[in-house]
Amino acid sequence: MKKSALQVARAAYQPKMPKALYGNNEVEVGEPTESVADQEEVQKLFPNTYGMPILKFVESVKATEYPAINVGVILSGGQAPGGHNVIAGLYDGIKKLNIDSKLYGFLMGPGGLVDHQYMQLTGNIIDEYRNTGGFDIIGSGRTKLEKAEQFDKGLEILKKLDIKALVIIGGDDSNTNACVLAEYYKAINAGVQVIGCPKTIDGDLKNEMIETSFGFDTACKVYSEVIGNIQRDCNSARKYWHFIKLMGRSASHIALECALQTQPNICLISEEVEAKKSSLDDVVTEIATAVAKRAENGNNFGTVLIPEGLIEFIPAIKALISELNDFLAHHQDEFNAIPRADKRQYIIAHLSKENSEVYASLPEGVARQLTLDRDPHGNVQVSLIETEKLLAEMVGNKLADWKAAGKYSGKFASQVHFFGYEGRCAAPSNYDADYCYSLGFTASLLIASGRTGYMSSVRNTTAPAEEWIAGGVPITMMMNMERRHGELKPVIQKALVKLDGAPFQYFAENREAWAVNTDFVYPGPIQYFGPSEVADQPTVTLTLEQKK
Q1: If exposure means fewest CB atoms within 10 Å of the residue's CB, which of 86, 140, 390, 545 is most exposed?
Q2: Range of the domain at 359
Q3: CATH code at position 179
Q4: Is residue 6 part of a domain?
Q5: Which residues pair with 504 in a beta bridge?
Q6: How many domains in the chain?
Q7: 447 SS3 class
Q8: Are the beta carbons of 527 and 534 closer than 8 angstroms?
Q9: Residue 459, SS3?
Q10: What digits encode the pLDDT tens for the residues 54-89?
Q11: Which residues participate in catalysis according to the annotation?
Q12: Rounded distance, CA 513 to CA 159, Å?
């Protein structure tokens, strides 16, 4: 395959790791853990993998010999920059433990395990993908591992290939599946360990022990570059308001980080909208007021950042979506059989009075988008809801009403954008290249120490890489019970933006000035080479969170 000059240069980059991973090491065992909530229910569901201790790898003078081991790896869910480096770190790690160890990749996600689709990953293959974006080395998929038949079918190929450990690289739902699989294999004494790695550009798989999910750093830098380009254009032409929706599923971490990097006029934070119990009209009025204030200074242009999941956090619409999820979980076939022209009325007739009224008030397009097929986890596919168009249109209508009433005299024209796929497969930043390689290498040590039901953890990542802390966290520690497809299920608790956290507080202190003034920042592209303070910098979010 033909490579660009940058790819050739990046292939030579050797990711940095925590000091403890380079030589001999041993595991330091912490205190037993418990789930973040619903302890009794979670423990009942995971009797074999609940309450395990947090682990930390430390340097050791003692060398240990390890037998050769066959390991399987799966890329699960949406792409995130750095996945190839997790696999490279895992490969190098098991080869360092024993040169005769082998790595097998299951193709196109968890479905590859169930359907027995795989390939052996050799050194030549791994070398082609070091420090590159994407998941194309083995592909990814969204097959949900939740049934015993799937686990048993997967076990057949694991036994055939003599695979003793399986690494699942994914987000909160994928790692929940990894935990369920680990519990099942442990319960039947299958002799297969299961280790997870925290992936998602959304940034919502994090806690005290998982500082950030990989890919978040790179994706935010890519989006911020493009937002900066738009803001430069915006400040040049001075005639458009740009409404920019950013990927991120439910949490607003990406929108907040991009706001911290680019200083737009407005950035909506879903978690704040929910906390304030804002209506859709409240959100529209907030944006329109800022537009009007800038118009008073002759500035009929600006930028608005919108998190992908915003619509779900407006309380009235959140209640509507919750009822819709439950209803469609039990009546999807019946709904699908209804003629398209009658679907809206069918939904209105079957919802509670309050939610029916909210649904009826929505524009036809948005109402239809709320009833589109759910994702494999039973969630509304919020990326398909054109919130940016909805808000731009509603703000324009409100300003027109104000103009008719003599309350506004500016000009308003809008452009809409949605940045999502543009950032998911970008070549990883130095931070993500280092972090991902370290996660994969750490996973090899968790396997070597005989662990299962753990997630690879690398912490203290705002310090130089040699000071990072590598270890493992029991996945059950992150669990709580949530309603999915109309039933309570154990899932990893999503980490939403904390309104009392340092990143949001910094944003809140500055947003009024950003709204009125034109204080745009233009970050430019990711820097792979140069001084460490430029090339290796972590996100603003992580820097603010880690400030002591």
Answers
A1: 545
A2: 312-382
A3: 3.40.50.450
A4: no
A5: none
A6: 3
A7: helix
A8: yes
A9: strand
A10: 999 999 999 999 999 999 999 999 999 999 999 999
A11: 202
A12: 62
